[in-house]
Amino acid sequence: MLRTPVSERRLDILEWLKDPAAHFPSRRRRDPTEDGVTADAVAAKLGVRRKVADTHLELLTDIGLLRAKRIRRRTYYRRDEARIAEVARMFEKGW
Questions:
Q1: Are 13 and 56 in contact (CB under 8 A)?
Q2: Cα–Cα 20 to 30 A to 10, which of 1, 4, 17, 94?
Q3: Can you tell me the distance from the alpha carbon of 8 to that of 72, in angstroms, rounded to the nearest whole number?
Q4: Is the Cβ–Cβ distance between 32 and 74 less than 8 Å?
Q5: What is the pLDDT of residues 77-88, one digit of tens each?
Q6: HSE (CB half, 13 Å, CA atoms) of 8?
Q7: Tens of pLDDT along 15-47?
Q8: In this structure, are residues 79 and 66 in contact, taking their beta carbons and an 8 Å threshold?
Q9: Do the Cβ atoms of 79 and 18 come closer than 8 Å?
């Protein structure tokens, strides 16, 4: 995780996903707080192509800061609060 370069976009994604309902419109049968948000929604919010958003989301998932959940043909992303808290504790301890 420490080798992952810091990106303003990734920090924005993590911040938006703290309160996804405030930052992403609710989809038909999906609650952004419960289910998460799609790469399409993140791409639209960032103003980039979906492939770029996919790259950021996959990286954040790979390092454990996001959880991905597949529902039908879409993948929904949301924060892994337990992992984020664990990482924050490591940095507070001077790791």
A1: yes
A2: 94
A3: 31
A4: no
A5: 999 999 989 888
A6: 1
A7: 999 999 899 877 667 777 788 899 999 999 999
A8: yes
A9: yes
Q: What does the alpha-carbon distance between residue 22 and residue 19 come to, in Å, rounded to a whole number? A: 6
First to last CA, the chain: 13
What is the spatial distance between Cα 83 and Cα 64, in angstroms, rounded to a whole number? Answer: 7
* 36 neighbors 70 (Cβ within 8 angstroms): no
At residue 69, φ and ψ (nearest 5 deg) are -130, 125
Q: Which of 61, 69, 74 is nearest to 13 (CA)?
A: 61
Can you tell me the distance from the alpha carbon of 77 to that of 5, in angstroms, rounded to the nearest whole number?
A: 20
Positive or negative torsion for Cα 35, 40, 47, 13? positive
Q: Would strands 66-71 and 74-79 be described as parallel, antiparallel, or unpaired? A: antiparallel
